[in-house]
Amino acid sequence: MSKKQLIRRLFQILIVLVGISFFTFCLTYLAPGDPVRSMYAATGTMPSEEVLEQTREELGLNEPMLVQYWNWLSDCLHGDFGTSYSQHKPVAELLLDRLFPTVRLALLSLALMLAVSLPAGVAAAVWKNKPVDYLIRGITFLGVSMPNFWVGLLLLYVVAMQLKLVPVLSIGTGFEKMILPAVTLAFAMSSRYIRQVRAAVLEELNQDYVTGARARGMKERVILWRHVFPNALFPLITLLGLSLGSLLGGTAVVEVIFSYPGLGNLAVSAITAMDYPLIQGYVLWVALIYMALNLAVDFCYNFADPRIREKRQVEG
């Protein structure tokens, strides 16, 4: 990727982030309810109307919407996402505190998913329309059909409550507290990726270079792992980036079920408490993660596939 293309992509990311921030701010501004009343309700006390009005004035909620948005956006550009109404802490601090648990959970989920989906997808493609293929596809159909919350509840009941192998709640740090949430997330992802790997490997096995390699007497094992498998991974890079972005944004349902202290759990708490600064900061944070990962995927394609690199050099 040339310097000119990089600057163009960064400018596009900036435009998208501004648009998302404005759209999110409009939604929170138009949402029913009074955030000041919700803020005091969380403390268990409700002051007089004079105090409520004074608080709105201090928070700038009496200003016109465009003025509020400009003030908030200016603060965001300086790294200040505001103060949480419900937790009375800086939004940036709350997001950073929840980021590292979410990163650990995301990486563990992706590792489990890749450990299962890559060999299973290759096996299903190699033994196409044979009992192994039918068995793997049947399991993937089950995995795609079952929602995450149902898988999580089943694992919670069987593994944690009946077998007592792991803690019921995933509060705090520790590998054993990430196992159930990670397996729950990896179960559905593995089912989708097995199908993608199978389709990609089958497509590569039908290419002319595979026929030529077989005609030269090359072993099937060498053809599969040295030529077919690396080429089949190219279409999966984008899907892997999107999956990582989704995981880093927090998986609200799974995190709430297991009480895992991640970004998704924080977002649900913010929505319940009508904590507008925290909601706005979270949406902007997730959008930035997706944009950064999308740019990273482009870099991966650029270095992994020489055809794309040569094409972009000609266009640049």
TrEMBL record:
PROSITE patterns, per the entry: ABC_TM1
Cellular component, GO, one term: plasma membrane
Keyword Cytoplasm listed: no
SUPFAM superfamilies linked to this entry: MetI-like (SSF161098)
Keyword Flavoprotein appears in the UniProt entry: no
Domain ABC transmembrane type-1: start-end pairs: 99-301
Membrane protein topology class: Multi-pass membrane protein
Domain of life assignment: Bacteria
Keywords: Cell membrane, Ion transport, Membrane, Nickel, Nickel transport, Transmembrane, Transmembrane helix, Transport
Residue ranges the record marks as coiled coil: none
CDD domains: TM_PBP2 (cd06261)
Residue ranges crossing the lipid bilayer per the database entry: 12-31, 105-127, 139-159, 165-188, 228-254, 282-304
Any one GO molecular-function label of the UniProt entry: nickel cation transmembrane transporter activity
Pfam family of the protein (one): BPD_transp_1
Compartments where located: Cell membrane
Family statement: Belongs to the binding-protein-dependent transport system permease family. OppBC subfamily.
UniProt subunit comment: The complex is composed of two ATP-binding proteins (NikD and NikE), two transmembrane proteins (NikB and NikC) and a solute-binding protein (NikA).
Protein's name according to its UniProt entry: Nickel import system permease protein NikB
Organism in which the protein naturally occurs: Candidatus Limivivens intestinipullorum
